[in-house]
Amino acid sequence: MADENKPEEEQMSPEEQALADEWAAALDEAGADTSQDDIDAMLAESGADDTQRMPMEEFNQSGGGQPPASGDNPNLDVILDIPVTISMEVGNTDITIRNLLHLNQGSVVELDRLAGEPLDVMVNGTLIAHGEVVVVNEKFGIRLTDVISPSERIKKLK
User: Fold this and answer.
1) Contact between 57 and 76 (Cβ < 8 Å)
2) Which of 45, 71, 84, 144 could bridge across to 131 with cysteines, CB 3.0–4.6 Å?
C-alpha cells in the first residue's frame, strides 16, 4: 500500500510493495524488530528500488546479443556438440505378444519391406535419410542414397 504522506516518486509499485511485505513477514517471523525504513533500506541494497526488468518477449527477441535465428537459416552452433543416437531401420512389423513369446533361435520374422528396398536412417527416432547396406573392411556400413533437406529435418524437430 502506498503511503499518502510520501511524494509520488517515493511511492512503491505493487511488485515492490509485495516484496516489502514478504521481507516484513520474514523479519517478523524471525523476531526482528524492524520498521518500514529498515525494509526500504534492504530493498535499496538489493537493487529492487531502481531496477528496470526487461520483459521476457523483448529478451527473447534480442537473442542475448546474437542475431535472431530465422526459420530457414538457424544458428546451430550452440547444439553441434550434443550427442544423438543414429539407427538404421531395416523394416518393422506388428505381432501379438503370443507370437513374440514363441520366438526362439531360428525363427523368421517377416518385415514390411521388400528385399533391396532402402533402409531408413533415424536420428533420435526421426527419419533423416534412406540408404543401402555396404561392407567396408569387413564391417557393415550404410551408403546414404536420399537425404532429407536440413530445413525439412529442422521442421520435423519442432
Assistant:
1) no
2) 144
